[in-house]
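Lay summary. Proteins are chains of building blocks that fold into shapes, and those shapes determine what they do. In this project we predict the shape from the chain. Here is one chain we studied, written as its sequence of building blocks.
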Amino acid sequence: QVQLVESGGGLVKAGGSLRVSCTASGRSFNIYTVGWFRQAPGKEREFVAGISRNGINTYYADSVKGRFTLSRDNAKNTVYLQMNSLKPEDTAVYYCAASTRLSISIIRDGYSYWGQGTQVTVSS
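And here is the predicted shape, written in a compact code that computers can read:
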């Protein structure tokens, strides 16, 4: 019902910043709660942040709270994840996901639609 594409990943030094984007097509974007997950090699996919349909409510994992900021522009069908003060442990493939649920879920099963992921690498 909706297709998601992540972009903006790359290589940055520790302490630097990067903004990744999730652009949607197929359905009206404002009906979806959107979450970001990340997966490092050999590790399970973990929740990073989530944003409500109107962009007012956000929720962040403790590991990124205070460093990452989630926002959305429904007119552009895009959600943005601004990542500041990056650490080597932030290195992972970052995925966006969409859900018709109103609440922000912190588990993978809470989302029905997923993007292909974008690589973020932070060097020390």
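What the prediction tells us: Residues 28 and 118 are 23 Å apart (CA to CA).
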